[in-house]
User: Fold this.
Amino acid sequence: MIEYLKVLADPTRMKILKFLLEEPVYVCELAEVLGISQPTVSQHLRRLKGVGLVEENREGRRICYQISRQVFERYQEELKIFLDTPINTLPEMSQEWTRYLEAKNKKEILACKELQ
Assistant:
């Protein structure tokens, strides 16, 4: 999930993803409408492909890119589950949550509020 979110943190990749959610496109089309070079578009597509969001279909010498719906929907579901799950039940956050509650109970985090 972290790698997926890192890939999506780039504004250009978000734009490319939005185009691909509409329909399959070619690198040259994306380069033209985004106003960036084809090699730059290819690098962004490589990152999206790296997390499985993009699939390519070779058509002769050209490659048409499209969204991998199954992977995209899986990431959406995983993010929704993560955000909807209570923090105290997430194994990867249990230590941080416990430290937070202990500090809060001891009033140790009031210092950061006083600085505001």
In short: The chain has seven helices and three strands. The chain has a mean pLDDT of 90.
